[in-house]
Amino acid sequence: xxxxxxxxxxxxxxxxxxxxxxxxxxxxxxxxxxxxxxxxxxxxxxxxxxxxxxxxxxxxxxxxxxxxxxxxxxxxxxxxxxxxxxxxxxxxxxxxxxxxxxxxxxxxxxxxxxxxxxxxxxxxxxxxxxxxxxxxxxxxxxxxxxxxxxxxxxxxxxxxxxxxxxxxxxxxxxxxxxxxxxxxxxxxxxxxxxxxxxxxxxxxxxxxxxxxxxxxxxxxxxxxxxxxxxxxxxxxxxxxxxxxxxxxxxxxxxxxxxxxxxxxxxxxxxxxxxxxxxxxxxxxxxxxxxxxxxxxxxxxxxxxxxxxxxxxxxxxxxxxxxxxxxxxxxxxxxxxxxxxxxxxxxxxxxxxxxxxxxxxxxxxxxxxxxxxxxxxxxxxxxxxxxxxxxxxxxxxxxxxxxxxxxxxxxxxxxxxxxxxxxxxxxxxxxxxxxxxxxxxxxxxxxxxxxxxxxxxxxxxxxxxxxxxxxxxxxxxxxxxxxxxxxxxxxxxxxxxxxxxxxxxxxxxxxxxxxxxxxxxxxxxxxxxxxxxxxxxxxxxxxxxxxxxxxxxxxxxxxxxxxxxxxxxxxxxxxxxxxxxxxxxxxxxxxxxxxxxxxxxxxxxxxxxxxxxxxxxxxxxxxxxxxxxxxxxxxxxxxxxxxxxxxxxxxxxxxxxxxxxxxxxxxxxxxxxxxxxxxxxxxxxxxxxxxxxxxxxxxxxxxxxxxxxxxxxxxxxxxxxxxxxxxxxxxxxxxxxxxxxxxxxxxxxxxxxxxxxxxxxxxxxxxxxxxxxxxxxxxxxxxxxxxxxxxxxxxxxxxxxxxxxxxxxxxxxxxxxxxxxxxxxxxxxxxxxxxxxxxxxxxxxxxxxxxxxxxxxxxxxxxxxxxxxxxxxxxxxxxxxxxxxxxxxxxxxxxxxxxxxxxxxxxxxxxxxxxxxxxxxxxxxxxxxxxxxxxxxxxxxxxxxxxxxxxxxxxxxxxxxxxxxxxxxxxxxxxxxxxxxxxxxxxxxxxxxxxxxxxxxxxxxxxxxxxxxxxxxxxxxxxxxxxxxxxxxxxxxxxxxxxxxxxxxxxxxxxxxxxxxxxxxxxxxxxxxxxxxxxxxxxxxxxxxxxxxxxxxxxxxxxxxxxxxxxxxxxxxxxxxxxxxxxxxxxxxxxxxxxxxxxxxxxxxxxxxxxxxxxxxxxxxxxxxxxxxxxxxxxxxxxxxxxxxxxxxxxxxxxxxxxxxxxxxxx
Length: 1210
Known about the structure:
By secondary structure, the chain is α+β, with helices and mostly antiparallel strands.
């Protein structure tokens, strides 16, 4: 039976956001009145689909009633269907068709491991199920090197089709620009009968085969899932297609599209993008132009930034998959209402795991764990009488307060026993909540403060079901003073989806120098993209007269990878706008560099029909509370008034503490804040009392503050890293991320080191102490110092460390040091890149810097550093770039100093210094726990030339300490395999940090239980003028594997960085190449990944060929190179580069003679090989290290070692 409706001149609309925990539904009836509804996304006992059920509920349909589709105009939806399929890896079985020689390229990616300290490296599963390598090749100029083998391709694809594949991703090298072969394969696949064909130049027509390939695969993998969901949803509506209302879906780019045009690549941020649109549309209507979005749901929190334009990114990573498609710039942090609470014996932890919708928080009556939501229940901020009754077997019960109190009582006793300090359940709940707040505030800093925006001048736009409970606390943490909560803030993503425009965005790769001559040809290309977008919009039956067009051009400096979008206009205006944006974002411009047009983009939009929705009726009889209950805020329990939002009169002031209840969320007004309702029924919160920035916290260790300070110190180091990455000039720092940033105590001990490059970890401390020792009496505020001396805490000469003292407010006393270490592309020496294979004296490797004042009282001494870098027998080759990178390091250090001073302003110097020590003590205790379970051991590891690293580990169980004795290690090396003692310290620190296997901070505390004995004048403690270039990159790996050999926990990794440097007077390039990791008792080793002391990125193959006169012939996993065993070692890689002009090649490596060892009976991994196949077919072997001149069409073959195996087969 169809329920009858009045006012048939208009129809219903439904706006739906299907989230990870809740599904929000908004219904707008024919009169324009809004109804809201919230359901659990997964509740199989009650309904099969939350969105359909929500529509039925709003229409008050009985279980046997048909949905009256003829009364529905539009259904607009954001959905996590695609995201869930991606996270759970249950998309469509997909075949990857890719250029021959590159079948493993998406698996290898950029060779980085996701967790720096994980011995058992876990990489995300690939989305494709099978690979077919296609025999074809087109070069960067469009020349056909190898014609497509059509018949062979058809045979391969037909075989896959016969094996059940119906989805295919077609990805060819340079296919984004030269489409002939991809189009031919597309036709073959259609002829065979593939149902989903995703072609890379159609899906993501931009350079970089790795993210373009991943995006194409994700499109093929998810699009069939979306089609099935659309069909399922339409079938549930229950009528013939011709009678159905229009179904539209929200895309990641912030625009709607017809359900039948909805693609997998555009679905990942479907729901969150609606929140951004809702924030902007409602915020601007309320008069707010600068907005920080804070969307807190059950599973995670999404944050975004708005200052007049939607911010989008062209490249991001979701669930381990790289995406290269336009999408809203949203930072997601795993801290939501469902984030699970943990106590590890010394620290409180929140997340990253979530209770989700099922079982949900403990209060949901489903056996769930304690979560952030339960904290608010415990504190009285969420009251069972005033919370939706959707729980229990019949989905009609209140939240369960008794189980929450019971679980917090148990947890409080556990914490009290562990810390020997009595804490109450209320204190525990407040403690966990404060940690969650800091986590969310740090997420906001990443999209605002780290990008140069002053958040104190912004309004916090708060939405999502859990956002209102935490808005004031998050704003206080960031120094924000105003909060906007729209009347539908609890369902704002759904509301934004209803307000969103239809939209399509198309890109085209260009890669040409920007000049006046190309503006006309770009205009033609823009017109073609406009025509394409127009046709796509008209295919959705949209009004052509309402279409709007936006044209953007993506520009970057030559040699950079940071493209910025500017509006397309006249040449001079484009150039000026780019420089303004670059200066604002990165703090500098480089007018001497060429500007490259990376790509162009056209956005076509069609505004949604604007229908004014009728607001809920507000009370005219004055504001009245609905309850007065005890609530804990700021540690105090006070009677607090609860109000229903509908009972608050316009412009009445509600003074905190107070709680406002609405149908879809709860809003907590903390003390010092006031709330009022404006004429649009928006809730505006304002801080009326100046927040006391100096928190009343003692100096004794507290497990709550310990976790907060761990995060604070690490966040400062990470912000420094972001500034350095953004402002650096060189590829090495900006793209390969070969740098580290850290904070140090006034005595030079490491406090926090952002997890950048492991070989830098722990090695900077000696450099700081050298600067302190040499400048203690002359150091002044505003000074900064340089050092790269290997004998005073340095690693090798290209790694230049900048050290800045941080003074107190009176500028009398140094209270911290901040430091940045960056690998400079060239620092002089006998060869380009400063990595000579045969150096024997330090001067052959470049300019040695030992305690040089770079900044004096705030003045950058550019002339002095220029003179230093241009001095000596072998001066630096690109001093301008050196200076540009040094200025970036200065900016990074200044950012660290500012952030530290902000922390001190909030907590006070005594407290900050106390926790500086406490975090070290916490790390120290974590290492002592490891010493409790390890035994005395020793190991000697031979290098390819017969030199060796030896170690004996002696554990004193009573003192819970250990001696790490490297006696027996070879004397100082006559060549360049000498590793300064700082590297030995870094290796030991890295190994014991890995053994802890927990998220502890990396600082000096890790080394306190360890006594290191490093023989003088040895290969790991050399003296001037020993050469050290290979010691940093190779001997460091040997030290690590020697330690692991003694400990017996993991087999040897490939044990080398495979340093591959090539160039001539015109160009230079430096690569470190991945290999296999060692197996352990837990799992096989990981193939094709960087291990231990490095984790630098590799340049994308298409970018490599575009920038340099080389052709990457192939890049594949070297199958069966890992050692055999119960658990097999990871495989190395096989990388082949054809040189297209003459160059000098330098190779420094290891394990070309001695294989990486296996343990517990496991077999060793295969040794590496490197050789040149000359164009006349001669072969020249290079061995462990070597230098060779190559000419056009010589091919360099680099085969990296595999990891050792674990365990012997019976």
